[in-house]
Structures are given as C-alpha cells and as structure tokens.
C-alpha cells in the first residue's frame, strides 16, 4: 500500500460566503475561455473552506464553456473534506485531502486551472514563492494559477493570474474587479492586494499606481462622469495613457475589471 501523502500547508480560517468568488469565475470565462475547450479539462480549488460552495460554483460557471469540465476540491482540513463528500460525483466532482503539493494528488492528470483564493493571505510572505512553485508542479503547460483576495462578500476582488509556459510559472495579469454596487475607491483595493503585494501596498511603485488611479477617478468626475461604471472605465483608460498597460477593451472594463498586463511590483 502506498504511503499516505502529507499535505503541504496549514489550515486556513475557511469562512467563505456564497458567490464570494463570482467575479473571479466570470473573469476566467470572459478572458481565458479558450483554455477550457479541450477534452475533460481539470480545475482545482485549493483551500475551498468550511463549505464547498465556491468550488461548486466555479464548476457550474465553467461548465458553460465545456460541460465536460472536472472539478477537484483540495482541503488540508479532513473535517472540511468530509463535509464536502456529499457533493461528490466522480470523475466530474471530487474532493480530497491535500495542500500545495497538488502534483502528488493529481499524479498523471495535470490541471488546466488551479485557484488558491483567500488562502495565501494567511501565510508569511516568505512562504509564498514555495507555495506557488509547488502548486505550479500540478499545472499543465499553458494552464493558469490564480491567487488573490476579496472582501468577505466578494463585492471587490484582486488577484494575480499566472500561466505555466515552457515549464515555468509566469505572471500574466493583475486584476481588480468590482460589481459596481458602490463607488469603489483605490484605497479599498489597496487593502485586498494579492499576497505578493499586500506587504508593499505603501511602497513604490505600488503607492504611485494607486494615487494615479485616484487621479483618474477625480478627472472622471471633473469630466461629468458620475456613474460608477463610466468613472471606472474613464480611470482605466487614464491609467493606460500613463503607461500601465491596462486592458481597455470594453467587454473587460464594462464588466468591472481593471486588468494590468504587468506585475506592478518586482
């Protein structure tokens, strides 16, 4: 009998509300749907929490791209795995005990997408590179790894998009998302930055980026743009003009996403 695999990582708080990660799922469908058209793509939700809601929601949303998508939820807490088992329907939906060592769990079937959301936030900054590297070992070539944070309700989100290219994990995008229910301020996003940025939120060049974002929103008001969506798009175009490489395509901006095609911080 093979020796049990020891999960790598530590238990998280695991409190996740229904639809908290809706904006993350929608962005994947909007910007990366081409990755999920193959045969039986596998998506992995790492640290889905006390209840399997967000993992099941991700599966449901990505099935609009491909009904043959498979979901694997991974949790380091055995009680949470037991709580999720009533939702299993192998091979379409399954839940297993594990941590960042995803490749040990997947073995011969790498993942098209790995999402580790509101997980690394609770780790020391020094632990992040190893955690990302371990998770990347379980990715297929061209696959995505998403790491980020949100407010408790998911009203706003901020996340990094990495892609495995030539065997290496490369940063592709930094994404800020809103549901437009409030007039969001850059300061609010500054408080939920992905783990690699949160400890540098008030350092250069991160600080300058948020001040320029604030200036763009102020200019939008000065130009008579008072609706949240229009101000958001105006500020996104302003950031692009200032050299931040923002995606200014209307389908992206208009859905509430500010996408930087650079990491913003080394």
Written account of the structure:
The chain has 266 residues and is α/β, with parallel strands linked by helices. The chain folds into two domains: 22-178, Vaccinia Virus protein VP39 (Rossmann fold, 3-Layer(aba) Sandwich); 186-251, no CATH class. 32% of the residues lie in helices and 23% in strands. The protein is built from ten helices and eight strands. The chain has helices at 22-31, 53-62, 78-84, 102-106, 128-136, 186-190, 195-198, 206-222, 228-241, 250-253, and strands spanning 42-46, 70-75, 93-97, 111-117, 139-150, 156-165, 168-178, 257-260. The chain has an eight-stranded mixed β-sheet. The longest helix has 17 residues, at 206-222. It is globular, with a radius of gyration of 18 Å. The N and C termini lie far apart (45 Å). The mean pLDDT is 93.
């Amino acid at each position: 009998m093979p020796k049990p695999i020891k999960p790598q990582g530590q238990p998280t708080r695991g409190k996740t509300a229904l639809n908290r990660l809706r904006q993350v799922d929608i962005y994947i469908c909007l910007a990366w749907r081409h990755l999920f058209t193959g045969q039986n793509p596998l998506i992995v939700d790492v640290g889905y929490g006390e209840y399997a809601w967000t993992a099941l929601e991700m599966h449901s949303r990505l099935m609009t791209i491909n009904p043959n998508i498979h979901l694997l939820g991974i949790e380091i807490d055995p009680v949470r795995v037991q709580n999720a088992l009533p939702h299993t329907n192998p091979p379409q939906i399954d839940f297993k005990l594990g941590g960042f060592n995803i490749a040990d769990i997947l073995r011969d079937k790498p993942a098209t997408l790995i999402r580790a959301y509101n997980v690394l936030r609770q780790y020391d900054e020094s632990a992040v590179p190893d955690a990302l590297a371990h998770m990347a070992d379980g990715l297929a070539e061209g696959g995505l790894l998403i790491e980020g944070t949100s407010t408790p309700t998911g009203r706003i989100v901020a996340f990094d998009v990495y892609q495995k290219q030539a065997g290496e994990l490369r940063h592709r995008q930094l994404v800020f998302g809103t549901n437009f229910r409030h007039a969001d301020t850059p300061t609010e996003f500054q408080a939920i930055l992905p783990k690699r940025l949160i400890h540098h939120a008030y350092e250069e060049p991160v600080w300058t980026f948020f001040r320029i974002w604030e200036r763009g929103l102020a200019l939008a008001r000065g130009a008579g743009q008072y609706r949240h969506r229009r101000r958001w798009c105006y500020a996104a175009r302003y950031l692009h003009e200032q050299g931040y490489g923002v995606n200014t395509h209307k389908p992206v901006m208009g859905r509430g996403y500010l996408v930087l095609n650079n990491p913003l911080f080394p």
